[in-house]
Amino acid sequence: MTVCKVTIFALAFFICATGLAQPIEQMEELNASELKKLGKAAIEIGDIYSAIDFYATYCAKKPIDLQAMWQLAELYRLSRDYVNAQDWYLKAYEADNKKYSEGLFHYALMLKRNGHYAEAIEHFNKFKKEYNGDDSSLKKRLKTEIIGCEMAKDMMNDESTTLKVLIHHLDTSINKAHVEFAPLLLDENTLVYASFKEDSLKYYNKLEDTIPVRKFYVAKKNGENEWTGGELFEGPFNKEEIHVGNGTLSLDGNRFYFTRCKSKKGKGIICEIYVSNKKNGKWGEPTPLPKSINNGNTATQPTVGPVRKQKKKKQEVLYFVSDRAEGKGGLDIWYSIYNVADSTYSEVKNGGTKINTRSDEMTPFCDAESNTMYFSSDGLAGLGGLDVFETSGAESKWRPATNVGYPINGGADELYYIISHIKKEEGFFVSNREGGVALKNPTCCDDIYSFVWKDTRYTPVKGKLYDVNFIEEVLDMDDDAANKQDLIFNSDRAKIAGQEVQIYEIAGDGEERYLVNSAVTNENSEFTLVLEKNKRYELVIERSGYFIKHQQFVTKNITKDTLQQHIGLLVLTEAPMAVKNIYYTYNEWYLTDQAKLVIDTTLYKIMIDNPHIVIEIDSHTDDHGAHDFNMKLSQKRAESVVNHLVKKGIKKSRLSAKGLGETKPIASNQNEDGSDNPTGRAKNRRTEFRVISMDDGTEIIYKH
Question: Which of 421, 412, 438, 441 is nearest to 188 (CA)?
Answer without folding.
Answer: 421
